[in-house]
Amino acid sequence: MCGFTRSPYPILWRNDEICAVIPSLDGRDDLMTEKHRSDDAEQRLVALESRLSHHERMAEELSEVVARHARDIDILTVEVRRLRERLGEVEAGWSGSPQDDKPPPHY
Questions:
Q1: Does 64 have pLDDT greater than 90?
Q2: How far apart are CA 58 and CA 101, in angstroms?
Q3: CA-CA distance, 34 to 32, in Å (whole number)?
């Protein structure tokens, strides 16, 4: 938000920093005319609408990414489950020989 302060030169403040010094052309003490305030409000409204549309588009893109990742996770979960079952079948059919229990010769 912009705040206005009275000084010899009207100062436009934004976030506690000087944005512009607006000298009074006719020597009056008021900072901005109604037209300037209206123009400033219109510019701020256009900027806010632009930022809002950008954020809406970004939210839609992020939603698509999250949905795609959820599908990928579901596919990978099914694949891991299938591989575990297959490994269990292989281990169950594995007949270990007594040689498998012996340590290798280099021990």
A1: yes
A2: 59
A3: 7
